[in-house]
Amino acid sequence: MNTAFQKAIALIMSADKELLNILSVTARVSLTSSVIALLIGVPLGIWLGACRFRGRNILLVLNRTLMGMPPVVCGLIFYMLFSGVGPFRSAKLLFTVRIMIFAQVVLITPIVAGNMESYVSGISGAVRETARGLRLGSVKSFLLLCNECIYPIFSAYLLAFARAIAEVGAVSMVGGAISWKTNVMTTAIMEYTNKGNFAMGIALGIILMALALLVNILLSLVQRRVSR
Q: Is the pLDDT of residue 97 over 70?
């Protein structure tokens, strides 16, 4: 085990080409999906948190259900839709980075929306009163609410990114964990461990844990700033 750990450190320090390729695919999938989820989830969460309308409770229940969707179920749905017998087979997206991004967007967007809805529900009343006092229109009121949510938005993005980079079920099903093409850190750790290549698995695990630590530090700083 000590030898495997030493080899893992050597792989990281030497910038192994295969390791860099896995990191590149992981970054592309995680960053793209988390940004798209943020762009969709933030307005949706603010709308659900600030507005009161018929059917809102149904949408909240639906969103909370999607927040707990098992990744393998999401992967199964996308696999059936884009496989050789699925309705979208002509798109030929199965086992590509693009479909991995789509699957992660579906998984992450409800999490972003749910976090934003919880925060906005607590401040929307005060912001609404301020907007009325300033005689602001609906657009400016929305922008004022967004301004009050700067740090929660950043926190929601960090949560989305952390969820994306640690996800394994959906991306392995729709991406196929193909070496040099769709292999991300989580799927590569499983693959190399099963092959007995513990050095690569440990190297990827070290990087993944370092990223998780960094995200949690940033989240703690944001939450401390919000609580002031």
A: yes
Mean pLDDT, residues 140-166 taken together: 85
In angstroms, the CA 204 to CA 7 distance is 12
**Which residues have a Cβ under 8 Å from the Cβ of 18 and sit 6 or more positions away?**
179, 180, 200
> In 134-197, where does DSSP find H-type helix?
138-147, 150-166, 169-175, 185-195
CA distances from 85 to 90, 106, 127, 192 (A): 10, 22, 51, 31
State both tokens at 206.
């070290």
Q: What is the largest CA-CA distance in the chain?
A: 69
Q: What is the mean pLDDT of residues 58-79?
A: 93
d(CA 159, CA 216): 9
- Please say if the pLDDT value at position 226 is more than 70: no
Distance CA 14, CA 3 (A): 16
Minimal CA–CA distance to 42: which of 114, 147, 131, 123?
114
Distance CA 133, CA 140 (A): 13
